[in-house]
Amino acid sequence: MSGIPSIVNESRSIQKPESNLTAALSNSPFMRACRREPVPHTPIWLMRQAGRYMREYREVRARMSFLELCKTPSVAAEVTVTAAERLGVDAAIIFADILLIVEPMGIELEFARHEGPTIHNPVRTAGDVDRLREVGDVDSLEYVLEAIRQTRASLRSDLPLIGFSGAPFTLASYIIEGGGSRNYVHTKSLMYTDQGAWDSMMSLISRALVKYLNAQIVAGAQAVQLFDSWVGCLNADDYREYVLPHTRSVVSGLTPGTPVIHFGTGTSALLELMREAGGDVIGLDWRVRLDEAWQRIGHDVAVMGNLDPVALFAGKDYIRTQARKILEQTAGRPGHIFNLGHGILPQTPVENVIGLVETVHELSAK
Amino acid sequence: MSGIPSIVNESRSIQKPESNLTAALSNSPFMRACRREPVPHTPIWLMRQAGRYMREYREVRARMSFLELCKTPSVAAEVTVTAAERLGVDAAIIFADILLIVEPMGIELEFARHEGPTIHNPVRTAGDVDRLREVGDVDSLEYVLEAIRQTRASLRSDLPLIGFSGAPFTLASYIIEGGGSRNYVHTKSLMYTDQGAWDSMMSLISRALVKYLNAQIVAGAQAVQLFDSWVGCLNADDYREYVLPHTRSVVSGLTPGTPVIHFGTGTSALLELMREAGGDVIGLDWRVRLDEAWQRIGHDVAVMGNLDPVALFAGKDYIRTQARKILEQTAGRPGHIFNLGHGILPQTPVENVIGLVETVHELSAK
C-alpha cells in the first residue's frame, strides 16, 4: 500500500536517517507526527503559507509573475523560508505549483493575473492523449530541485521541508478541462467513454510524478505531499476504478523512508479509499470531523487538518475555540499534524495566521 | 421535525386529498414514492429538466432573458409542461429560480447572459441585515403563483407539479456574497463574527420562505423542494448551529400533507443533520452511495437521486449500467425517486435524458 513500510508497520518504525534526513530533522515534531510518535507539541504548517495574504510575498510578486517566481530558485527559496520563519510553523513547503509537472508533458501552462491556471492545449481525445510526452527525466524541472536545495541550505536545520505535486486525478482534470472546472464534464466524459485513453494518461502522469517527487526528495525534501484537490467531484465507485490504482502506483514508487501526505478536498465519501491508495498522512478538509474521519480510516495512519480556512477571518477567540475543538478530537493520540482544510485564502489577516500557530503550540504543549 | 407527520408517522400515513390533490395526483408514482408507498415503477424527474440542453427551451430564451421568462407566467408554464411531456418524467417542476424570493427583500438581482446570478447590493454587515425588507406577503411573486396555476391547468391531470425555492443557507450565501462563490468568505465571516445578525437574516429569509412555498402549494404545487445547493461548504458543527434551526422552521411551517424534498450537494458529512432539519424526501448528490446514505438517515424517510449529471454525456450502455446500480441500491424498498445528483448540465444530449427516463421506467417496472 504505502511505500513506507517502516512507518506503516510498527515493528519497523525506527527510521534510519537518510543522507538528507539528519537527526535534528528526523526528531522534529513534524517528522515524528508523520511516524505517529509522541511530540512535545502538535506540529502545524499551513497549505499556501507563502501566499498573497502575506505582505512580503506581495512585494515579491510585484516584481515578477507567479510562474517567474516558481522558476527563479533563489526567490522561490526566499519566499519559502520567509513564510516559515515569519509564521513559526513546524515545516516549510517549497514554493511551487501543483501543475508544474505538466509542462514537460507538452502542456502549455499559463497563470493569468488574478486568475487560475489556463492550459492552452487541453487534452480531450485519445489522439490528444497519444501526443502527451513521456517525462523521461525531470531536467526541465531543475528549477524546482534547485529551489529545494537552496531552501534546504538556508532553512533552520531542524525544520523539515515538504515537496509536492498535484496527484494524478487533479492533474488530469486540469489537463483535460484546460483550467479549473465546476462540473468536470470533459474529464469524466473521457473517463467514462474511453477508459483505455484515461488509464494511459493517468499512467503517464503517475510515472512522471514518481520521478519528479523522488527528485524532490533527493534534492532535500523530507516529506512529499500529493494534492488531489479536486478528486472530491467523484463518487467512491469512480474513485476506486479510475483513480485509486494510479495514485497507489505513485505512492508505492516513492523513496522508502520519506513520509507521503495524501490530501484532497470534498473527500468525506472517499477517505477510506484514499487511505487504501496510500500515504502515511491523510489530509482532511474541514467538512469532516477529525475524530470521525480518523476512526474511519484507522488510527494506524496519521492525519493532517482540518480548520476551515475561513475561520482565520474571524476573531482570535473564535480561532482559539476552533483550534481547541480540533485538538480535542485527537484524544491525545500521536499522529496529528495541524493544518487548514485547504489553502490559506488571499485576504486572510496575517496576524490571525501567526496567532493560530501560537495557539496550537500553546494548547498542545506537553 | 417535519411539517408532515402524516408521512413521517406510519400510523397516520393516509393522506386526505386536499383541494389541489386529486385522487389521480395522490396516486401518482411520484406522490406515492414521497409517502414511501409501493409504486408500479420508480418515478423519475430531473433537476433543471427545462433548461438550456433542450432545443425548445433555447428557442424561447432567444426571445427573452432568463428573468423575463420567469416573470411571464404563460411562457414559464409552457416551458414547464413541454419539458415534462417531452421527457416522459413522473413530475414537472415549475420553471423559476431558487433566488426569486430575494427580490421582495430589497435585493437587486440580475442574471447576466451566460453567467450566474449577480446581486448588486450584497449584505455584508449587521446594518445591511437591518435594511432587508420583511416579506409581508408574496404579492410581488404573483408571477410564480400564476405560472403554477397555468401549468397545473395544462399539465396532465395525473402529473404532480413541484414548487421550490432556495433554502435559507443557500439564499443567504447568495445575498451575502453577491453571487456564486468558491470559498464563502463573506458568508462564513458574518456567521462566525455576528451570530445575532446571521440569525436575524436567516429568520427573515425563513419567514419569507414559509409564505412563499405555502402560496405555491395553494396555487397548485403538489410538493415543494428546498434547494440548499451550497450548504456542503459547511461542516456538521456549523450546520447544526447556524443552519439547522432555520431550515427546520421552514419545513415545520409548510402546509401539512404536502411532501417536502430537502436537497443539497456536497452534503455527505451533513445528511443526518439535513434529515433532522426536516423533509419527507432527502435529495442525495452523486458523491454518496444511495444505499449507504439511506441507511445513515434511516429508511423512515424517502430519498431522491443520485446519478452524476455527467453520466448523461456518456453512451446509452454506460447510462443504463449506472441507472441499474442506483436502482439496485434501493433493494426494492419503496420511497425512492430517481433523479440526478444535481441539475442537468447545459451541453447534455437531450436523447440521453429521454433514454434515462425510459431506462429507469423499464428497469424498475413491477
What features would you describe in this structure?
The structure is a homodimer of 366-residue chains. Chain A is of the alpha/beta class and 366 residues long. Chain A has one domain (5-364): TIM Barrel (Alpha-Beta Barrel). Chain A is built from 16 helices and 9 strands. The first copy, chain A, has helices at 5-8, 23-26, 29-34, 55-63, 66-70, 73-87, 126-131, 142-154, 168-177, 185-193, 195-219, 236-252, 271-277, 290-297, 316-329, 350-364; strands at residues 92-93, 109-111, 117-119, 161-166, 223-228, 260-264, 281-283, 302-307, 336-340. In chain A, strands 1-4-5-6-7-8-9 form a 7-stranded parallel β-sheet. A two-stranded antiparallel ribbon of chain A has the order 2-3. In chain A, strand 2 and strand 3 form a beta hairpin. In chain A, helix 12 runs parallel beside helix 13 (271-277). The longest helix of chain A is centred in the middle third of the chain and has 25 residues, at 195-219. Chain A starts with a helix and ends with a helix. Chain A binds chain B through residues 183-185, 188-189, 192-193, 232-238, 266, 268-269, 286-289, 308-311, 313-315, 318, 325, 345, 347, and chain B through 183-185, 188-189, 192-193, 232-238, 266, 268-269, 286-289, 308-311, 313-315, 318, 325, 345, 347.
